[in-house]
Amino acid sequence: MPKKDLILLALDGSHTLKLMDRALQAVNYETAIAADTKALSRLLQETMPALLMVGERFDGHDGLEIIAELLERFPTLPFLVYTEKATPEFAKRVFKLGINGYLAPPLRTDDIVGIVEGALKHAHRVGDWLRREVKRTTSSLKKRAQISEAERSRLETVINSIHDNVMILDEDNVILLVNPAMCASFGLDGQAVIGKPVLDVIQHPDLRALITSNHSDDPLQYHEVNFPDGRVASAQYTAIPEIGYVITMQDITYLKEVDRVRNEMVHTVSHDLRSPLTSVIGYTELIARAGPLNESQKDFLKRIQESVQHITALINDLLDIGSIEAGLDTRREWVQLDGLLRYTLDMLQGQIKAKQIKVQTEIASPLPPLRANPVRLRQVLDNVVGNAIKYSNREGEVKISIRPEGDQVIIQVSDNGPGIPIQDQAHIFDKFYRGRNINDQEGTGLGLAIVKSIVDAHQGRIWVESNVGQGSTFFIVLPIQSPTIPVGKK
Ligand code: ADP
């Protein structure tokens, strides 16, 4: 078996040194030779030897004194010493220092190898024992840390005064601490539950789902916890190294209510605005029938109609976002993206021709169908491809590719238009956000917000890569749901 241990030799007298070096290398030890005490100190740091052999005199110093000093710095390193003359006094000093052994002439290869092996074996045994002890001590320290009284009472004071619900668990999900707010939320007896597995104590399905969900991907998990009396809380389950886990929970009932009222208001206002606008459009169409109009009147009417159409489109967008964000978009069918893209391109033909845009498509075949809402996916394509054309310069190039990758489909829409400044890229999916470099292009800043909410509702992802002056590429990744779900069923 090859021996890879490195033996560091610090000896005067080239004959002895050579002999030892050869003897050790012959049995596959690695060796390093220190020329003086300075080199010895450096080699000890750099090579981490398995054993150090020092001469009784080395570089003008007493070898045993060198060893005594080094033992302070390297207490687990095995030392051997070589002496020209082994007197009883010398042997006494060696054993007093706790050195592993000594060698004296006549030097035979077997003796050299034998004493080195013996010292190494002993050192390995000590090393193994040390490692075991360290492990045992750290794990007992960890355990003690979990239940240490001082620590516990300090923690208890802190978490008891926190308004949020807090529960601390060990690595096996056994309750270590729980604060009064958490006890009140789940009707727990604060003292009785300590030391019990949390799943024996908590029956609430939302919180149980949070605790038992797969935590390997993300050490921090969020869940909404709904109470029968209508309260809603946001709960987090966080891993704490060397302790276990902490569950924290905050009441978000009022936030939910604010959100609901806001959405309801947007919805109602949008609905209420749409009806009068429909009649404005209706009457503007009737004016023309009431009698002949002069050119200025016709122009004014056209402007009114365009403005009303603009507001109507804005309101429709708001209503769309409202219903998608409220989770009302549940329609799912098997959808062929290539077919949808054809409709989108047909619709945009007028703008493509007017700006002489070169459109290239690269659609993988066969393309797996997606389980999705076709109307919404059409909106995604209309908006993203529509933007690529709208923001492209005349004779620009737009490339659209759709390809499957694993269990998802990737839609990529690139243009060589103005690009999106880096400061805007994080915001273009927000409602009403418009880039700073698009000058006089019309728009509401709602298109990509709608796209994002649709993609989110389909468990997909959307992002953009763009450089100003070079163009933009939008990536949309949508999951292909397992085709074992029967077509037409929700
Ligand atoms: P709108 O186009 O109505 O402004 P969007 O929500 O569709 O609203 O887009 C938001 C912003 O993102 C735009 O105002 C524009 O600044 C930027 N943007 C979107 N697509 C592109 C694109 N293909 N090239 C350059 N900028 C884009």
Overall description:
By secondary structure, the chain is an alpha/beta fold. The chain folds into four domains: 6-123, 3-Layer(aba) Sandwich (Rossmann fold), CATH 3.40.50.2300; 127-251, Beta-Lactamase; 255-325; 333-479, Histidine kinase-like ATPase, C-terminal domain (Heat Shock Protein 90, 2-Layer Sandwich). The protein has 15 helices and 19 strands. The protein has helices at residues 14-26, 37-47, 63-73, 88-97, 109-147, 149-160, 180-186, 198-201, 205-212, 253-290, 295-325, 337-355, 374-391, 422-425, 447-457; strands spanning 6-10, 30-33, 51-55, 57-58, 61-62, 79-82, 101-103, 165-170, 175-178, 220-226, 232-240, 244-251, 333-335, 358-363, 370-372, 397-405, 408-415, 461-467, 471-479. The strands form five sheets. It has a five-stranded parallel β-sheet with strand order 2-1-3-6-7, with helices on both faces. Strands 9-8-12-11-10 form a five-stranded antiparallel β-sheet, sandwiched between helices. Strands 14-16-17-19-18 form a five-stranded mixed β-sheet, with helices on one face. Helix 1 (14-26) packs across helix 5, helix 10 (253-290) runs antiparallel to helix 11 (295-325) and helix 11 (295-325) packs parallel to helix 15 (447-457). It is elongated, with a radius of gyration of 39 Å. The two termini are 66 Å apart. Residues 482-490 have low confidence and may be disordered. Residues 383, 387-388, 391, 415, 417-418, 420, 428, 433-435, 438, 443-449, 472 line the site of adenosine-5'-diphosphate (ADP).
